Every structure is written in structure tokens, then in C-alpha cells.
Amino acid sequence: MNSMTDSPYAALIGRSEQTTEHLSASLVKRIAATLGEKPPAAGQALPALWHWAFFQPAVDEAGLGDDGHPARGGILPPAQNRNRMWAGGRVEFVQPLRVGAEATRITTVLKVEEKTGRSGSLLFATLRHDYMQDGQLAIREEQDIVYRDPTPPKLDSGEALPLAGWQESVTPTPTLLFRYSAVTFNGHRIHYDWPYVTETEGYPSLVVQGPLIATLNLRAFCRANPQANIRRFEYRGIRPLISPQPFIVGGRLYAPGKAELWAGNEAGIAQRAELTFD
User: 86, 110, 230, 243: most buried by Cβ count inside 10 Å?
Assistant: First the structure.
């Protein structure tokens, strides 16, 4: 295919859907308990990346695929017989979402394209999410979803962790993974179903959620730099992290208002991120 108009997925480009949800203080308390944090009260700012626990489609079990994701279709491409992964994304923080009030997410399909990588054919879909509250834009996000042919997972990046300006150690217990899947209403079975993840998808154990890694990584930055006002966060998954093997989240400042972040362990870097702040 030489152009997007030639693509069999061209009809998906520009499709959109809208979801409005109350940013419930009760759910915020459950997110806080999952992450070991003090929950913000109604009217206070929702911590960075906690919005991922909201706006998820309430699909009943009959509407799920074998992997636990909602069945293919809707505004996403019908990529049957492929494994779906949240590969990375870019988040712009305009102003905080507030706990206890309604907010709206408008999702638009920006791009769908087929590529060939070392692991075979890959289908990439990029979604844009605009999060609105009180008629104003709060967060603008692009999210990259990749569908890949079933292949053995790559568990070693071969890239050692850099020297960090700050870092924290995380032990991703099965309980943490289960509770994060629960508060984000994520049915993907690789995070909680040991027979499925080992026998069907070929991982040695449960897989740590990419959004959870990003959330813990950004939290570590905020703890080390409490005065920073986050403007943009860009992250990319490199390889999976496996429970219950401990991993490090850390980073360093490399220019005024700029930081690079990473997560990984002795098997190398698993996720990279770039951060802009003031």
C-alpha cells in the first residue's frame, strides 16, 4: 500500500466516539489503595495518569475476545488472530481533571497502518483522546495500539539501565497486577490468568501492565521533583516486565525542563519515556 487512501483500513480514519463519566471519589480511593497513595478529595486534582481508570467501555463477558479484550471492531480495526498491546503514547497535560465531577473523553482514530518488523506483520492504530471538563480541554493524549502475529515474546532488551538521578524499586506482585486491572477495568488475561499467559501467549508468568509501569515511572519523577509542573509525557514499551520479578523506575534531568525516564531490571530497559515540565 502506497498511501493511506489505499489501505483497507482507510474507512476507520476519523471515526470517533464520546464517553462521559463521573470521576467518582470511590473509584479514586480504590486507585489510591492499589498504588499505596493517599486519595485526593472531591474537587482536588486527579493525579497524573489516573485518568486511565475511567472512560473504559463496560463490555459484558459475552462481548470479549479470547484474550479478554473487547471483541475486535467498533472504531478499532478488526484484527483477528493477533495479540493486542498498548505500545506507548503521548500525553499533554493542559490542566488537571478534578475528582468528583463529570468529564468527557472524545476518541478519534488518527492512523491505522500495517508494518513488518522482526516479529512479523504488525498493525498499528493511533487514537487521540481529548479529555474535557467544564467545557475546557484538560488532557490531550495519543495512544498507540499494536496488533502482532502470535510469536514468542522478547524478554531481554540487551540495553542496560543508565545511571539514574533518582530511582525506586517496584515488586509487581500478582495482587498489584490484579487490582490495577480491576480499577482500570482491563480484562486482558495476560495480567491475571496464569494458565492463559503461559500456555497460550508463551510468557513465563504474568505480564506487568504498560500503563501501570508508566504511572509508577511518572510518580517516581514527581516524588523526586515535587515542584515540577508536568506538561508532556511520552512513553514507549520496549519489552515486557514479568511478575513477580522486581524492576526499577528512574530517570535523570538532561536539560532545563527536560527529563528522560525508564523502567527495567537486569534484563535491560523495558520502557522509555521523555518528560517536559516547568
Answer: 243
Half-sphere exposure of 114 (CA within 13 A, CB side): 15
DSSP run (H or E) holding 251: strand 247-255
What span, in angstroms and rounded, lies between the C-alpha atoms of 76 and 113? Answer: 12
Alpha helices in 127-188 (DSSP H): 174-183
- Of the pLDDT bands very low, low, confident and very high (cuts 50, 70, 90), residue 182 is very high
The CA-atom distances, in angstroms, between 73 and each of 7, 54, 79, 86 are 17, 21, 8, 16
**Residue 68 contacts residue 60 (beta carbons within 8 Å):** no
CA distance 19 to 94: 19
CB 69 within 8 A of CB 62: no
- Can you read off the three cell numbers belonging to residue 44? 482536588
Residue 145: enclosing H or E segment and its boundaries? strand 136-148
d(CA 249, CA 262): 6
Measured CA to CA in angstroms, residue 39 lies from 28, 31, 275 at distances of 6, 8, 24
Report which of 37, 86, 270 is spatially closest to residue 186, judged by C-alpha positions.
86
**Residue 63 pLDDT greater than 90, yes or no:** no
The string of DSSP letters for 70-130 reads: BPS-TTS---TTSEEEEEEEEEEESS--BTTSEEEEEEEEEEEEEEEETTEEEEEEEEEEE
C-alpha cell at 240: 515486557
